[in-house]
Protein: Integral membrane protein
Amino acid sequence: MSTIAALPGISGTASALRRLYFVRFAFAVVWALAMFTTASNLGLLAVTLLVLYPLFDVAAAIIDARASRTTGSPALLYVNIAVSLITAIGVAIACTSGIPAVLRVWGAWAIVAGLVQLIVGVTRREMGGQWPMIISGGISVLAGASFIIGATADNPTLTNAAGYAIPGGIFFLISAFRLGRTAKRN
Structure:
């Protein structure tokens, strides 16, 4: 059994999620900065970053599911794992067709992952620190729709996809700080 899974109850889950959310914040910022440097074309770096982001989401959802076993069903996190894995494959394939195809796949993923994040946040309200996750999930749904619409632009770029990571990272950071109170209840 991992250390994360062994922590008791809500305070243990909050502590594990707090650490995870700090990592997610750092990853999002670094990823966005790297993505901004290559957002106008689909070179090797952009393709790598575009596939890496949903794969990172898979890893984060696995850690989250393990950490939250004691506080509720991780079923939605398993949905997120599957959707993000399919997205990584879909983005890799879409990269061979151009930026509009990537934006459509990225947008569909943002919508589904945002809905999952919103619902998970609502179910974790008693833990505290979840309103940023709820808001972030809602914003993700709207951003996903904008990516799909943006795919129809005359000269679409991946700049909005890069920018998408920053607010999400900030919401993870805010939630991590707010979860500190719950984590200290050990």
Q: What stands out?
A: Helices lie at 3-6, 9-36, 44-67, 75-94, 99-123, 131-150, 159-183. Residues 1-7 have pLDDT under 50 and may be disordered.
